[in-house]
Design brief:
Oligomer: single chain
Strand content: 5-15%
Number of helices: 11
Structural class: alpha/beta
Low-confidence stretches: none
């Protein structure tokens, strides 16, 4: 009887569990506001609030507003944080008074050149949103990629995976915890599909503004084969991240080296005590606190390694994507030249 009751309770929990987020539906006007904000203040880091509705597996983003931008890091203090929080509350109150959606569904941010969104600050921010509003998402926009590969090339929606969220709540990122949860660097972030939507009135208006299609200079600019600046910057940033990963691996190497040395010393002391017992002598203490070998050795956190590996994978994917587009353009231009 108890077993059937537990099974019924578990099945009820599964039924009442909220559906997993699958799609982020963002209105075209909101997307334009995000792109304009990120491009106008590029290469500075900019952030803003996303507002909308949570409807089943779809997170609708119907509005947004930017956060105050601080150019210098030394300006960011407690007073500045309080001003930013008050600004956010005032904006949401004004939107609520205007009968506009004021439900927070996440935030957006840009990616300055050389910086990566895969950071400890990103995880802490997402955890705060998750604890307060439940289902949330972060929209990342990279203006540098969009300038070369197209307006929407640097746009993505991300969230932390459920398994990594559970691990983050415990705050234990040791190797044993990662093995128990079967978490690798690819299991930290989840990319959510973005769907851009417009009202029927806006779509009809945009159709009326669309002129008769004629070939102009912009069509030929798409065949531009020069991708050297983006490739060079990505390779340079990739080398830096590889150096950072090497530093993290050295920390682990020294940790395991110290642990092995400590275990060897303890085993040597035990063997010595066995010999002393056989000779009728008193054994030596095996847990002498004055000996540095008995001091506990803290295991380095694997969080930085996971994030750096994500950054390396991101740069590799960008290099692969840019190089693939360049080869496609070269093949097309060669075919046109031969004709």
């Amino acid at each position: 009887m108890a077993t059937s009751f537990l099974q019924a309770a578990a099945s009820t929990e599964k039924v009442n569990a909220p559906p997993a987020l699958q799609v982020v539906q963002i209105e075209g006007l909101v997307l334009l506001k995000i792109i304009k904000h990120c491009k106008d203040l590029s290469p500075s880091l900019v952030t803003g609030q996303l507002l909308g509705l949570d409807i089943g597996t779809v997170l609708e983003v119907t509005n947004c507003f930017p956060f105050p931008n601080h150019q210098q890091e030394n300006d960011i203090d407690q007073e500045t944080d309080d001003i930013g929080a008050n600004y956010q509350l005032d904006m949401m109150s004004c939107l609520r008074d205007a009968n506009v959606d004021s439900n927070v569904v996440g935030w957006y941010q840009s990616t300055p050149p050389g910086a990566c969104f895969q950071s400890v600050e990103f995880i802490e921010t997402f955890m705060n949103y998750k604890e307060n509003i439940g289902k949330c998402v972060c929209i990342i926009y990279d203006p540098s990629r969009s300038n070369i590969q197209g307006c929407l090339a640097g746009l993505k929606a991300l969230k932390l995976s459920d398994t990594f969220l559970e691990l983050s709540r415990n705050g234990n990122f040791s190797g044993e915890s990662l093995r128990d949860k079967n978490i690798s660097w690819a299991d930290v972030f989840e990319e959510i599909t973005i769907r851009v939507s417009n009202s029927a009135l806006v779509s009809a208006f945009m159709s009326s503004l669309e002129p008769d299609r004629v070939t102009d200079q912009s069509d030929y600019d798409r065949l531009q084969i020069s991708s050297k600046p983006l490739l060079e910057s990505n390779v340079e940033f990739l080398i830096r991240r590889m150096d950072d990963l090497s530093t993290e691996q050295k920390k682990l190497k020294f940790y395991f080296k110290d642990v092995t040395r400590q275990q060897a010393w303890v085993q040597e002391r035990r063997d010595e005590n066995e010999a002393r017992k056989a000779a009728g002598e008193d054994p030596l203490p095996e847990d002498d606190s004055s000996n540095p070998f008995f001091k506990p050795i803290p295991e380095p956190s694997r969080l930085e390694s996971l994030l750096i590996t994500n950054q390396i994978a991101d740069y590799c994917n960008q290099i692969h994507r840019v190089a693939g587009h360049s080869f496609t353009r070269l093949s097309l231009i060669k075919a046109l030249h031969d004709d």
